[in-house]
Design a protein that fits this description.
By secondary structure, the protein is an alpha/beta fold. The protein has 20 helices and five strands. α10 packs across α12 and α11 runs antiparallel to α12. It starts with a helix and ends with a helix. It binds flavin-adenine dinucleotide (FAD).
Amino acid sequence: MITPETQLKWLPTRYEGLRRLNRFLPHAGQQYSRLRNFDYGPLRNNHVSSLSPWIRHRSLLETEILREVLKKHSYATAEKFIQEVFWRTYWKGWLELRPDVWSTYCGSVRDLTECSMANRESRKKITAAYSGDTGIGCFDSWVKELITHGYLHNHARMWFASIWIFWLGIPWQLGADFFLQNLLDGDPATNTLSWRWVAGLHTKGKVYLPRPDNIKKFTGGRFSPIKQPLNQTPSLYNEPPPPRQLDIITCWNKNRQTGLLLTEDDMLPEFLGTPTNDFRCCAILNSSNHRSPIGISKQVAAFVNGGLQDSLTNFLRLTQIPQDHVFQTESVDRLALWLAKVDIEQIVVAYAPVGPAQEALDLLDTKLLPLGIDMVRVLRREDSIAWPHATKGFFKFKEKIPSFLKDINNCIKTAT
Ligand SMILES: Cc1cc2nc3c(=O)[nH]c(=O)nc-3n(C[C@H](O)[C@H](O)[C@H](O)COP(=O)(O)OP(=O)(O)OC[C@H]3O[C@@H](n4cnc5c(N)ncnc54)[C@H](O)[C@@H]3O)c2cc1C
């Protein structure tokens, strides 16, 4: 549950994520189901978990959250919360099966930023939106909330995106980019696809238009916007590209000299091997600043850096890796140079899904090849179970949740 105290402090540690999870657990059942859509504002009690910044960076795992929730509640009572957790899994899988949607989006952000800034009228409109100066009270307040806290309630994100697209008439890609700069949980798949969903690009015949009565009701009357004319007609739905086959690797050869690589997409490397025996060296490659061409806010950068430091400290506590065998960088070139010196045959890394970390790993891979160092990207079992099913809409995907949970449980039991 978000309280004024929790919202103001976003400590990036795993410990803090676990602390919040424990506080939220009693509320994950009927209370969440009934009240999750109400947004009483950043300094009020909301009935959601506020776990997304930890889940996004995998310093808290969906599997452990689901396990703890199901210890406290029956599946039926916690079904709504469980489904929300699986929305993220669905978006991650959907984009992983269609990486072109991300590259097209990135190209549009670059082009649109250039074009819009070159045109006086659109520059004025966008600048007003970025600074929360549009005259639409609720929207301006959410801009400030986003910039100050790095977080918005899910319903506020939906209203924000629909006002951005349909009342302000600004291309959705620029709004999605603004979110990625400022959200502590900024995530290529969930963010891009949620914006596409609001714009009407994801589900045929479905578009999310702003509704003043809905905003008034679910903000507890804090806002009562006046209906504005539509400034943009809903985008035309296009059939998405067909899903590709995933190349799934879930284990690696422990008889080779191996280094461990951490990225901001998975801060719990323990599933990759035993810290004491398996790794000769450990490196961090942080690509989070590439979430947007403009970079990320200081607050987001501090959260990602803090999370990576926490992860490294927790990991190194269990190893005998000497300090000169630990390296941290944002530069692929510098990492490749360093790895060339530490005498390893392969580097093992948790699979980084579509986004800047994956792009950085692709580049690193090309630089390691001539050095004779292989890169092994290990996909978590839970992802390998669920992602290949994100081929159609969420409705079809969510029917499979009970069987995903059964398969994930079996994997956990076999591994322990
Ligand atoms: C336009 C738009 C952009 C968004 N961008 C992001 C983003 O960049 N990163 C991000 O993590 N979420 C994003 N979301 C989804 C959702 O708003 C957040 O995950 C949620 O608000 C996080 O708050 P919470 O942890 O309190 O959620 P809770 O309601 O407590 O849910 C628990 C967890 O389930 C997952 N979840 C909940 N709702 C959704 C959803 N609609 N889609 C996917 N996963 C969900 C999250 O991991 C969340 O932490 C976006 C939604 C919209 C409409």
